[in-house]
């Protein structure tokens, strides 16, 4: 017969584990924030993404579920941590450029952080200075329009 | 319930399926890929829906939705393209439409919610598009799978099956855009079952596909093809080990990645050894008895016809 995981059973288990029946709303005020201590780029990332980086409590669930970590230098949770610490090394990370905006992290974060938006904000810091994440000469031949439009909108200014 | 009964259109009576009377029509947004790389998706959808008594009415003067949804807070410009399409729906006197491509569905649906959440945004977009009538809001975006499940109904579809897919092992591949984020997903983000139910109603066996909700790499196929290839190896490998005959998707980009990178792994241009990728509408149309020529199966890099003809041959 069908080798299929029973949807409802899985649903119950998954919901119990993740609280996904009641996804948390993003927390906006954080006692953990070091007032006035953080650099401008952290504030800018929060503005661009609409997400609160100090909402993250470093559970690592986003890193565990991300299927692109083999190409990343920082795991998604590490990106969040360096932002919290105001560590500029996050600005040099390739991780936001490898992220495919797949939202696996977004649906699983128990704190309601949309990490894909944080990744996009980090890309925008560069893109809005005119930098590009696409090496035009290295684009594989024959890629369809849907891929080119998607990549151009995510990886170029 | 169908909200509009239309007389049998000239188009339907001119089509080969004169015995299948078109009773209803629903507006539909094709998107760019369905006019070029994924013509079989559109052809098979139209033909299958006609068999079910529905005509897909293409939006007049539709434009590209933008493919990917903008994740920044301050970029209203990225919502102009979706809103322009909603205006087309409004001009048709309609309140909803279906999309076929999962990426279009996601981008359009999220933009609809984005402008509905804040009327200030909408009025700025309307002011910017001063050559267009104002978008008044309220257009509902549906994915065709959702429409088949909730409006036509899988039971009804089963009753129209002419060639049951007995013995065919089909692996669903949802990818990201039908399921995430939760607010626009057509099913549970981690444990969806819409496609499995459809396959079973068509007589096929749904193969457990452990990576069915994981990303194929999407547009990273342009910038980081190596990472995408690894994803495809895992996704396809897992269903190959479960003897899947076919993988079914609802996204032209998933289809491209799953086909192209399978070929680059096996190192062949056209291969008989890979697992063919079909759109769900092609599988549906086949089961409903749509002639093969109308399903657009010939364009696939990995030919699905051997798997399907085996079936007909018994
Ligand atoms: S899943 Fe959310 S809370 Fe957990 S590490 Fe990632 S961002 Fe932080
Ligand atoms: S959205 Fe980006 S960071 Fe999050 S899981 Fe997907 S690829 Fe990883």
CATH topology term of the largest domain in chain B = Rossmann fold
- Any guess at the CATH architecture of the largest domain in chain B? 3-Layer(aba) Sandwich
The helix count of chain A comes to 8
CATH homologous superfamily of the largest domain in chain A?
Alpha-helical ferredoxin
Distance between the termini of chain A: 51 Å
Low-confidence stretches of chain B: 1-18
CATH class membership of the largest domain in chain A: Mainly Alpha
CATH level-1 class of the largest domain in chain B: Alpha Beta
The helix-strand sequence of chain B is HEHEHEHHEHHEHEHHEHEHH
- The number of domains of chain B: 2
Tell me, what's the shape of chain B?
globular
Rg of chain B, Cα atoms, Å: 19 Å
Helix/strand-derived category of chain B reads alpha/beta
Counting DSSP H or I runs of 4 or more residues, the number of helices of chain B is 13
Total number of beta strands of chain A: 0
Order of helices and strands of chain A: HHHHHHHH
The radius of gyration computed from the alpha-carbon positions of chain A, rounded to a whole number of angstroms, is 18 Å
Shape of chain A: globular
How do the helices and strands line up, and which of them pair or pack?
The complex is a heterodimer of chains A (157) and B (314).
Chain A (H helix, E strand, L loop, with lengths): L6 H12 L21 H10 L11 H5 L10 H10 L9 H4 L5 H5 L6 H13 L17 H11 L2
Chain B lengths: L9 H5 L9 E6 L9 H13 L2 E5 L21 H12 L4 E4 L2 H15 L2 H10 L11 E4 H9 L1 H6 L9 E4 L21 H8 L3 E2 L13 H4 L1 H16 L5 E4 L2 H15 L10 E3 H9 L16 H9 L1
Parallel strand pairs in B: 1-2, 1-3, 3-4, 5-6, 5-7, 7-8
Helix pairs in contact in B: 2-12, 10-11
The complex binds iron/sulfur cluster (2 copies).
